[in-house]
Amino acid sequence: MPEVLFEPTKLGSLALRNRIVMAPMTRDRAGPGDVPSDIMVEYYRQRSGAGMIVTEGTQPSLEGKGYWRTPGIHSDAQIEGWRRVADAVHSEGGTITMQIMHCGRVVVADNRGFEADVVAPSAIACPAKVPGPDGVPQTPQMPRALKASELTALAQEFGDAARNARAAGIDGVELHCASGYLINQFLNPVSNLREDEFGGSPENRARFPIMVLKAMAGSIGADRVGFRISPGNKYNGMDVSNPWETFTPFLREANKLGLAYLHVVDMGEDCPDTLAMCRESFSGPIIANNGFNAERAEHVLAHGKAQAVSFGLKFIANPDLPYRFRNDAELAKPDFDKIYTGEAAGYCDYPALA
């Protein structure tokens, strides 16, 4: 039976009852106005046995939305909806942080239901197709390049989103810097062709992401702010030919901010020695992610390579995943046809063992 996996820990000011983290997963169940729905409240409550839940990606503004029925954190109704989620998780003794995700150029207009700009570091379209409301992949819109004069206000939108999350009772926030979304678009040389101080060298490309982290830390305290990266992940058209040239300057600057944690998607053979390379540049707590089982997670924790491990897919069909790990119980399989559709079915109707 795993031992270290069930030890409590702290990531900054975030207290975890165990080292099992629920990873952020888009599930497309938000209600009208991108407000968290009743079934979202139940979904997160059921999984409160995790040491910490990281919510699905949540847009900080109208412009940040790219996918169908993803929740926001920029309106009063959204704040109230997330308060219901936070209260449900806290009623079970859980800890919950919110992933703040701005899609940048990864936008299908039909997914929004409103008019808003599509923005990116440079006017380069996302080469990958994005599912529309019916699940059929569509070609994303061409973005407009952000002006340098817009970036301070845009960074503050993330700071405001962090403040709104805390107003809703959420314990902390995680900046999504992975998977080809806006922050990753600034970091990556294939999507950032700017010729000003926010483009060119890896150090310059990291300037806006660091501005955003500083704005979030300034709003709620650095010890409640984490961030997520996925070196070697080509999702949404990222160049992965030299990931450490891209991420090392960013990690070194982020390391100076006293943040709660770094959440790392370990891409395995596509980016060897990911955790070790991150540790060279970031001295704070690390959450490891991607393809872990209980045994491998225990090994990583016992050898000090990470302070916690996050699980995504396993949490979908196993709301009581920590209980199953502790008791070496069989894991249920998710209904893949209902990952992004089905309302309660395939979402909050998976039974717990206990």
What would you note in describing this structure?
The two termini are 18 Å apart. The strands form 4 sheets. This protein has an 8-stranded parallel β-barrel, surrounded by 5 helices. It has a two-stranded antiparallel sheet with strand order 1-2. The protein has one domain: Aldolase class I (TIM Barrel, Alpha-Beta Barrel). With 354 residues, the protein is α/β, with parallel strands linked by helices. Helix 3 packs parallel to helix 6. It has 11 helices and 14 strands. Strand 3, helix 1 and strand 4 form a beta-alpha-beta unit. 30% of the residues lie in helices and 14% in strands.
List keywords for this structure.
about 350 residues; alpha/beta; two-stranded antiparallel sheet; 11 helices; about 30% helix
- Report the portion of residues in β strands: 5-15%
Counting structural domains, the number is 1
CATH class: Alpha Beta
How far is it from the N-terminal to the C-terminal residue, by CA? Answer: 18 Å
* Weakly predicted, low-confidence segments: none
Give the class from helix and strand content and strand pairing. Answer: alpha/beta
Q: Rough shape?
A: globular
For the biggest β-sheet, the strand order reads 3-4-5-10-11-12-13-14
* Number of strand elements: 14
Architecture (CATH level 2) name:
Alpha-Beta Barrel
What's the SSE pattern?
EEEHEHEEEEEHEHHHEHEHEHEHH
CATH superfamily: Aldolase class I
- Quick one: biggest sheet? 8 strands, parallel, barrel
- Overall pLDDT score: 97
